[in-house]
Design a protein that fits this description.
Distance between the termini: 36 Å
CATH class of the largest domain: Alpha Beta
Number of strands: 9
Structural class: alpha+beta
Number of helices: 10
């Protein structure tokens, strides 16, 4: 299971970077099949860059080994073909994964706004500033209300939208980025900017985001999820028409 792998690696200073919302239950093999991402794919990428090799059973029953611990030669990128193929090309039975060192420091912020547009403009401004957040997620009013009714994550009830902003890396670098993030949020009329004071607060903030789908399940039997692809610089323009 995805989260169990990272928990086992943590004492050794590593983790498996892909972190889907279902990471408490999803398997690494499932991540391979879906090329899963998660909130932190903004910095760390989807599953594919974190797969070194795989043992796969083909539809004819043949077992093949692709990739490995060392850089392979020229030829077709079979890993790139199979990751994300959802089991249609073969069934993965073993994986060699790339581990990522745990960051020296993490800072997590919750910024609240009076409109989705202000939050969207803030996203574009943060990216344009040169900061590469580990994660940058937006929740709108409906999502906030559903999540608060479900697990009481501590999101502000008066906000029309919030951003979860997380940066990680060397502590000195994060202090500089935190100052810039505060300035950008203030420039875009943030109602509040709150920093998680400890790992427990950080966990609670992310628990709310990752529980969003389950929270909507309490409201309706049907919940359609669509993934839109929008240039980050154009995000606020698109959100004005949604």
């Amino acid at each position: 299971v995805n989260q169990a792998l990272s928990e086992a690696l943590a004492p050794h200073g590593f983790h498996f970077a892909p972190d889907p919302s279902s990471q408490q239950a999803c398997t690494v093999g499932g991540n391979f099949a879906e090329n899963a991402g998660g909130p932190h794919c903004l910095k760390y990428g989807m599953t594919l860059p974190h797969i070194l090799g795989a043992e796969v059973v083909l539809p004819n029953g043949e077992m093949i080994q692709i990739g490995g611990k060392v850089l392979g030669g020229t030829g077709y990128d079979l890993l790139g073909l199979l990751v994300g193929s959802e089991g249609t090309l073969g069934i993965v039975t073993a994986l060699t994964v790339r581990l990522t060192p745990l960051p020296e420091a993490i800072q997590t912020f919750l910024a609240s706004f009076s409109s989705v547009i202000e939050a969207s403009d803030t996203v574009s401004a943060i990216i344009a500033s040169g900061i590469v957040p580990a994660a940058l997620e937006m929740l709108d009013k409906l999502t906030l209300e559903a999540v608060e009714a479900f697990i009481q994550a501590g999101y502000p009830k008066e906000a029309e939208a919030v951003l979860l902003i997380e940066v990680d890396g060397p502590a000195m670098q994060l202090d500089e980025e935190a100052v810039l993030i505060r300035e950008i949020c203030q420039e875009h009329s943030a109602l509040e900017l709150r920093e998680a004071a400890d790992p427990e607060q950080r966990k609670k903030l992310w628990q709310g985001r990752k529980s969003a789908f389950g929270a909507f399940g309490r409201i309706s039997h049907d919940f359609l999820v669509m993934d839109g692809v929008v240039p980050r610089s154009k995000l606020s323009i698109i959100m004005r028409t949604v």
